[in-house]
């Protein structure tokens, strides 16, 4: 049986842009872009493959290298944890409905 995966892409710059846009009424999109361009020279761009058996593969889209979950920090780690919790809850709900 094939192990299904749930694929997500996390682009850190987009995360910070959206957060700034939602958290303030005082900055225009162009101002946010300018701040982000000045703040960092590199933002993470990862693809996450979460498998139904609980395993995960994380690929750095810039280098095509695999990343271990313990290497994640900041916003990327937050994204990973939130998706992991969401998928565990979703899997439990599916099983409850299947066996109810």
UniProtKB/TrEMBL annotation:
Identify the domain of life.
Bacteria
* Protein name in UniProt: Sulfur relay (Sulfurtransferase) DsrF/TusC family protein
């Amino acid at each position: 049986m094939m192990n299904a995966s749930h694929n997500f892409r996390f682009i850190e710059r987009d995360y910070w842009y959206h957060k700034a846009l939602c958290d303030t009424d005082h900055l225009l999109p162009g101002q946010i872009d300018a701040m982000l361009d000045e703040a960092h020279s590199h933002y993470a761009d990862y693809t996450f493959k979460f498998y139904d058996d609980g395993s995960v593969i994380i690929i750095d889209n810039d280098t095509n290298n695999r990343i271990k979950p313990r290497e994640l920090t900041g916003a990327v780690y937050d994204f990973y944890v939130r998706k992991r919790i969401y998928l565990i809850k979703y899997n439990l709900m599916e099983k409850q409905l299947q066996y109810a």
